[in-house]
Design a protein that fits this description.
By secondary structure, the protein is mostly helical. The protein contains 2 helices and no strands. The longest helix is centred in the middle third of the chain and has 39 residues.
Length: 57
């Protein structure tokens, strides 16, 4: 075993972890958007969206 084996292995492991985190964040974002869509179809609105009366004041 050479020094290069450990260096290349660490780069591969780091790339795998970064890729895993990117996929996790992407899938979690999709899940949260789906939850918001479900809540909005049930009539539950976000406070940050505001109401038409707030924008006229």
């Amino acid at each position: 075993m050479t020094h290069a084996f450990y260096v290349i292995g660490s780069y591969v492991m780091t790339a795998g972890i970064c890729l895993g985190l990117i996929v996790w964040v992407y899938l979690d974002g999709r899940a949260r958007r789906n939850e918001l869509k479900t809540l909005e179809t049930q009539g539950i609105r976000r406070r940050s969206a505001g109401s038409s009366q707030d924008s006229q004041a």
